[in-house]
Design goal:
Length: 124
């Protein structure tokens, strides 16, 4: 069975490591990006099946990254899950408005995260 590729985009290395471990245990291949620009640079070459995207990053925030991905024909089909500490309802609404497929608030349960990723990939 083909391993799904998931890109994690977060500027906090500990979060990337935690998410990577939980996804690898669930048999996903993981691509890491530590900034919005790095994610945009890597997405064409790595062709992830799904992107887990933090909102608060020092260069380009997650809303802008998601908007750019959804506006670009080669990447618009890639599902995006916002994974963020920003838990206000307005943040979730903005994430969905720019094209995110789901919105998960930190702290998160690693098992539930893997399940949500799998559910979204089943819909594709």
């Amino acid at each position: 069975m083909k391993k799904h590729k998931v890109m994690i985009v977060d500027d906090e290395p500990d979060i990337v490591k935690l998410v990577k471990i939980s996804l690898e245990l669930a048999n996903f291949e993981v691509i890491e990006a530590f900034s919005g620009q790095e994610a945009l640079d890597k997405v064409q070459g790595t062709k992830p099946d799904l992107i887990l995207l933090d909102i608060m990053m020092p260069d380009i925030n997650g809303f802008e990254v998601c908007q750019r991905l959804k506006a670009d024909t080669p990447t618009r089909h890639i599902p995006v899950i916002m994974l963020t500490a920003k838990g206000q309802r307005g943040d979730a609404m903005q994430g969905l408005k720019v094209g995110a497929d789901d919105y998960i608030i930190k702290p998160f349960d690693p098992y539930e995260l893997s399940e949500q990723v799998l559910e979204i990939l089943k819909k594709e």
